[in-house]
Amino acid sequence: MEIKFTVPGAPVGKGRPRFTRTGHAYTPDKTAAYEEKVCLCWKTQSGQGFPGGIPLKATIMAYFPIPKSASKKKRAAMEGTFHTSRPDSDNVAKAILDALNGHAYPDDSAVQIDRCWKVYTNAAPRVEVTIQEA
In terms of Cα–Cα distance, which of 42, 38, 41 is closest to 50? Predict the structure, then answer.
């Protein structure tokens, strides 16, 4: 079985947990909102899930917008090249996999292989996710 879905908009990396004055940890609002968006996109585009005990492989393609400050010539040259600035690819993957935890699979520890690429695009920014049995 294979699950494929797309999350529109610029990719967001998993933020560090924040702490209240009393020491309780919470997820930053930007991260929580993005994780809800990922879960909603999965539900509307696929909605399929994997049972527990199956090793999974996740492939994530994160397409970032080219900066507006780039010239037309530089924009054309940057299309399809690797995005080497923040957020880190592991933080992008973590935000996606944590959002699907308990929905598409019982626990994200089932994901044995995860590959995440970050590239620039002139098209709409998005994240394309594919999850399949390993």
Answer: 42
Q: How much is the pTM?
A: 0.89
Q: 14: which DSSP letter?
A: P
Burial of 5 (C-beta count, 10 Å sphere; 0-12/13-18/19+): buried
Give tens-digit pLDDT for 47-95. 888 988 889 999 999 999 999 999 999 999 999 999 999 999 999 999 9
How far is it, in rounded angstroms, from Cα 46 to Cα 6?
Answer: 10
**Domain 2-133 part of CATH 2.30.36.70:** no
79 Cβ contact list (under 8 Å, min separation 6): 66, 120, 121, 122
Tell me how many degrees the CA angle 59-34-123 measures, rounded to the nearest 5.
Answer: 60
pLDDT in tens, 105-114: 998 888 998 8
CB atoms within 10 A of CB 29: 10
Where do the structural domains in the chain lie, given as residue ranges?
Answer: 2-133
